[in-house]
Structure formats: structure tokens, C-alpha cells
Amino acid sequence: MIKKVSIVFAILFFTAGCTSSQSSLDLEENNTTKDDVSKVLTQLFTGPGEEVKELYEEGSYEKVHAYYTEQFAPYLTEDYMDQAMQTNLLTRYHQQAYSSEVKMEVENKDIQQSDVETDYIFDYQVIVDNGETADVRGRVNTNEDGEITRIYFTEGQALSHAFDTVEKTSDGLYEYDHSSLETRSSDESFQPQFPRVMPYEVDGVEIKAGTKEDKDTLLTFIFHGESGESMTLTTMKEGYLPLEGMETEEVAVGDGTGKYAVDNNTK
């Protein structure tokens, strides 16, 4: 009798285990593109968590790149994943929050399918633990396989400003959040790298790598100002300037002086 009961119990346990596994699998299979878009956006506007903060403290671009690739690559096309990392789209808000020693949390969110079947319009309200609140709106494009091909913001500056710690120096220059530049150009062979202060309030910085044979040796920094100013500085590893077809000049900003290929459009 005891053996019989044991056998029945074992069968019931095995059956329950199979049912649980099947339910988990069904849940993954029933995950929609809208669910994936929500997961990606929510992760962009949350944190940074302790693991991300440790990576930024290490200052290793390779480790940061590997972390974000693991987190986001399953939801983005391969080409857009590369583009999103090169333009700091995936890391931007985490870096700014880390630099300002604050954290983000999603308060409210709304994601709706647009009139285009593969596009989604989003509206997020993000709170920062310094007391600031910001609305972030935009659109996400996906392909027929449900992979994200583009994320762009129709309103995103408010969140960047929620981290603002702009300070004016005694020389009339402006400090800015350069955490993203530190992570990307941590290799000291990039000389002279980037200035730590600017002659205007910086609204954002783009970082572009070179193309083809120059992609691992060339970096371009584009500094956008609050009032429409713009300055583009290009530098290479081991100081291999001047670049072919590009004029260089010595640029002094604050205490930093370096030779760059320059496109200056300040007003």
C-alpha cells in the first residue's frame, strides 16, 4: 500500500512539474511586440541599478557595451543595436543619472499602437529621486518580426534637464556632464580626448566613431548648446592628426589645449 501511494505521488508531482513548465513557455510565446517595447523603454528610464553603477565606476567601455548588448540585443535588430550603442541612446539617461548620483523610476506609462501597425507611440512620466519629474514622449518602429528598428524622442530633453548640475566657473566657462565621454574614450591613447568645460551651456553631446578602417581609431565629439551652439571636435588614437583632407587647429578650452579637426558653429 505504501509503495502504491508513493508511485501515485510521483506521477502527480511529475505531471504538475510539466504543467508549470508548459505555462512558463506559453507565457513567453504569448509575449507581444508591445510588451517588448514596454520592457525596453522601462529599462531605459529606470535606475541605474548597482550592477550598472559598478560598471561605470570601472570605466570599461567593453564591459558596459557587453552589459547593454546582453540586456537589449534580443529586442533590437543587429544594425540598430550597433547604432543605439554608438549614439549612446541606450546608455544616455543611465550615465547622466549616475553622474548626478540620482536614480530614475517610472511613475506612469502609456504605449499605444499607431496608425502604422508596426509602430508604437509612448508617453512616460519619470521621477528622479532628487525631486524632479519629467515627461518623455516618442515613437518606436519595429519590423515584421517584432524587432525594434528605431527609437526616437519627440520630447526627451526634460529628463536630461532633471539631472542638470551645470555650474559656471570663475572664468565664465560651463561645466557639463561628461560621463558618457569618459566611458567611451577611456583609452588614454585617444589624445587629447575632450575638454572638461565649454564656453556655453551644453545641452547634449554626440559621440561618433570613424567609419570602415577608422572605426577603432577615430572619435568625434559634437557638443550641442542650450541656445543652438554647436562644436565638433575630432581626435584619433596616438594623435594621428592631421586627418587626410581635414584641417586641424589648436583648441584651448579652460586649462585644456589640444589639436583637433574642428567644425565650430558657435553663435
TrEMBL record:
PROSITE patterns: PROKAR_LIPOPROTEIN. Residues 1-20 form the signal peptide. Keywords: Signal. It comes from the Bacteria. This is DUF4367 domain-containing protein.
